[in-house]
Amino acid sequence: MSVAIDTNVLAYAEGVDDPVRQGMAKSVLRALPVTSVVLPVQVLGELFRVLTRKAKRPAPAARATVLVWQDSFPTHDTTAAALASAMDLVADHGFAVWDAVILAVSAEAGCRLLLSEDMHEGFTWRGVTIVNPFAAAQHPLLTAALGSSP
Q1: Cα 29 to Cα 136: distance, rounded to the nearest angstrom
Q2: Nearest CA among 119, 137, 136 for reference residue 128
Q3: What is the pLDDT of residues 63-120, one digit of tens each?
Q4: Mapping DSSP to helix (H, G, I), strand (E, B) and coil, where does residue 121 land?
Q5: What domains are there in the chain, each with its CATH number?
Q6: Is the pTM of this model over 0.85?
Q7: How many CA atoms lie within 13 A of 43 on its CB side?
Q8: DSSP 3-state of 38
Q9: Which residue, 79, 73, 86, 96, is CA-closest to 126?
Q10: Please, which residues bridge with residue 5 across strands?
């Protein structure tokens, strides 16, 4: 099962804001098979912004961090078709445009899950279900992706 990762999961793994979620994010990322993870390129760009603006890391350090993530998992680019789909998600479902791009790219990449804390939990579109990996009760699809019990 392919799993896309949203920016907030990577930001937490990098120690931005919440030490408890940092441990949870790292645990989930370690448990997922590397070949099943997809990073939309949009997520990497957003991570760079979070690291430089919110975490106040120098740009060279943020760039190095983003490149490590880029080298750790397969990435998927934003295509013109994904952008068109993202605009439909904005118009039809009220998504923020950059969240919609991430969801559209995740669908294009054939993902079954999109792990995100701040999108529409449980929303399914084109076969991709948005799951909060930090929820108190683990979603059954995340359990299946991790190959563990809730």
Answers
A1: 17
A2: 119
A3: 999 999 999 999 999 999 999 999 999 999 999 999 999 999 999 999 999 999 989 8
A4: coil
A5: 3-146 (3.40.50.1010)
A6: yes
A7: 28
A8: strand
A9: 86
A10: 115
